[in-house]
Amino acid sequence: MGHSLLFDNLIKPHLHNQDPFLIYKDGSLLSYQDFFSLSKKVSQFLLSQGVAKGDRVLFQLEKSVYGLAVYAACIMTGAIYVPINDQYTLEETKYFISDSRPKIVLCSANRKSEIDHLNIINPSGVIEIDPIKGLMQFQLQEYNEIEQIQRVNDDEIIAFLYTSGTTGKSKAVALSQNNLFSNASVLKDFWQITKQDRLIHMLPIFHTHGLFVAMNITFLSGLAVYFYEKFSLSDLEKIIPNATLLMGVPTYYKRMNESPLINKELTRNMRLFISGSAPLSSVDHQEFFAKTGHTILERYGMTETNMNTSNPYEGKRKPGSVGLPLPNIQIRITGHDTKIPLPPKQTGMIEIKGPNVFHSYWNNDQANQESFTDDGFFITGDLGYLDEEGYVHIAGREKDLIISGGFNIYPKEIEDILNGHEAIVESAVIAKENKDLGEVPIAVIVTKNKNKDQLIEDLSQLLSQNLAKYKIPKEITFLDELPRNAMGKIQKSEIKDLLSY
């Protein structure tokens, strides 16, 4: 067998492991041994289709074991795994195929039919796969398990993940074997994850959180996973007493805070609640602690870097902070104009350097040149600051910064105040063009309060007591809900479209 960092550490130790790997909603089990037997047959299938080292394998299907098996198969064959959201439209999918130029596409029957009519890839390279039945035109049991593992250098690419594309076309983030292994091994130790843990997995697996954080740590530790197709509060309430670990997004915790069934007794066997992929409000953080006695561990990551920071497992977990830089990862805050590192408590650009930072954007030299400093730090596009203890605080995306009359306004500062009001379910602060000031802040509110006029009056008073005049939103408007992406992150560009700003 050839050397492969991920195969040697994530797969090889489990080839004969009969312990549970996935536990499904109906209680049925899949062992590690059976899962990797399936993956080795998928690997042989990929080889039979002419897939070679470095070829892209694009996968688009609802969450199932096959998404994980194709990922493992790509590790074994040296192919590049390209998972994309099964909710993408045909037009969006067309872009991903044209950009990544995959050797084969694995997708549902309906999507295959649509892609075939586009004439952008040979129809023989578009293969139907079903979340339950697997490869529809091929019988996997007829394939032997792959025997020769492809030799792959540690810095060679194993996956493309596409960015959310909020500032233009999505870019393919090329992630190396070492990017993924170094991050997973650090997180396993940092969060003290062991084989005895039981992980609740309700995240999608086309995203770094659900795939590379959750599953790579699972493979490294050998723990068992309660594997659900999607988030369900009722399912969560049933399984929590049997689990020790949850990796979730803020929406999960907001829903749990609203549930009368979530309490200290129900969660007494849980060891760790982790939140990421979107900002968790201090209010939700504190309410969850009051309800369960558990302090949510918030961390900070992104597609290009996997995880960068985490509040400590043992030690102070600060509400509103994403924690300390992980081992071997450097983080600095630089001035917008000066590009010089800033002292604590001053907000600027977050820049990151470490083995977790991605290799490059695929086929995008301009983006690569613009995204790194001369000394090798990745310019994240996130604004934040370090406090006196070195904890990182996120102020928001640079693109969301509001510049009003020459003053910088950070939406999160306003949102934190709004979200602290008992009548506010959630809020978003966005920019609206203004002839005099350039931009002004607008607050968009979700509330259960029917007396909106009185609420506006109360919020105006609250904001006036806590903010300089130039930071106070010039309008307060209401929506039934805020648009979010698959990971629960509020999509401010969509809010602007809804309001025609």
Summarize this structure as a short list of keywords or feature phrases.
501 residues, alpha/beta, Rossmann fold, GMP Synthetase, Chain A, domain 3, nine-stranded mixed sheet, five-stranded mixed sheet, 14 helices
Detailed description of the structure:
The chain has 501 residues and is of the alpha/beta class. Among the domains are: 5-152, Rossmann fold, CATH 3.40.50; 401-499, GMP Synthetase, Chain A, domain 3, CATH 3.30.300. It is built from 14 helices and 26 strands. The protein has helices spanning 5-11, 32-48, 65-77, 90-100, 109-116, 177-190, 209-221, 233-239, 250-258, 282-292, 365-371, 411-419, 452-466, 492-499, and strands spanning 20-23, 29-31, 56-60, 80-83, 104-107, 126-130, 134-135, 157-162, 172-176, 198-201, 224-227, 245-248, 272-275, 297-302, 306-310, 324-325, 330-334, 348-353, 360-361, 378-386, 392-397, 402-404, 407-409, 424-434, 438-447, 475-478. The strands form 6 sheets. A 9-stranded mixed beta sheet has the order 2-1-11-10-12-13-14-15-16. Strands 4-3-5-6-7 form a 5-stranded mixed beta sheet, with helices on both faces. It has a 4-stranded antiparallel beta sheet with strand order 17-18-20-21. Helix 13 (452-466) links the parallel strand 25 and strand 26 (475-478). Helix 2 (32-48) packs across helix 3. It is globular and about 70 Å long. The termini are far apart. The mean pLDDT is 92.
Flag low-confidence runs.
none
CATH class of the domain at 5-152: Alpha Beta
Instruction: Identify the overall geometry.
Output: globular
Total of DSSP H or I helical runs spanning 4+ residues: 14
Q: How would you name the oligomeric state of the polypeptide chains in this document?
A: single chain
CATH homologous superfamily classification of the domain at 5-152: ANL, N-terminal domain
Average pLDDT, rounded to a whole number, is 92
User: What is the strand tally?
Assistant: 26
Question: For the CA atoms, what is the radius of gyration?
Answer: 23 Å
Structural class: alpha/beta
CATH topology call of the domain at 5-152: Rossmann fold
User: Strand arrangement, largest sheet?
Assistant: 2-1-11-10-12-13-14-15-16
CATH architecture of the domain at 5-152: 3-Layer(aba) Sandwich
Q: For the terminal residues, how far apart are their CA atoms?
A: 58 Å
